[in-house]
Specification:
Largest sheet: 11 strands, antiparallel
Radius of gyration: 23 Å
CATH architecture: Beta Barrel
Number of domains: 1
Strand content: over 45%
Number of strands: 11
Distance between the termini: 57 Å
CATH class: Mainly Beta
CATH topology: Lipocalin
Structural class: mainly beta
Helix content: 10-25%
Number of helices: 2
């Protein structure tokens, strides 16, 4: 009888917990988020990403990019672009840009004269959305 009562109690306990099996993990700290991330896509397209296409006159492409985030709330991006004419690379240039942002859990935002940049972190992926006035919105996805 004790054994049957135990099984009934255990079954009732398991059924009472059914449907409540999700756990919300705490937001990662800046120390956990800090690190080097490589650009994987721009607006859903793999690299090289064509920023400007002038047909036979040439293309401006993002060839490679990285993002380094430190625990103080500063992100530095390094982007290499190239100018291509008739499938020939005419020039290649690497530029760096620094953003200081304010954390809100797994999200951050920064605003400057050139617009608003927002970002979010999920696991080993950083997504940045650039809303520069007068330009199309760009979504950059980086991963470790």
């Amino acid at each position: 009888m004790k054994h049957a009562l135990f099984i009934a109690f255990a079954t009732a306990s398991l059924l009472a917990c059914k449907g409540n099996d999700s756990v919300t993990a705490p937001a990662p700290t800046a120390d956990v988020i800090a690190g080097l991330y490589d650009l994987k896509t721009v607006n859903g397209s793999a690299l090289p990403y064509t920023v400007l296409d002038q047909g036979p006159s040439g293309k401006l492409q993002v060839r490679v990019a990285s993002l380094t985030i430190n625990s103080a709330g500063v992100a530095t991006s390094s982007t290499t672009t190239r100018l291509v004419l008739n499938l020939v690379t005419l020039s290649e240039q690497t530029d760096s840009k620094q953003l200081t942002f304010a954390w809100n859990g797994t999200k951050w935002a920064t605003a400057n004269a050139s617009g608003t940049t927002t970002g979010s972190v999920s696991g080993t992926t950083v997504t940045i959305v650039d809303n520069t006035p007068g330009s199309p919105q760009l979504t950059f996805v980086y991963s470790r």
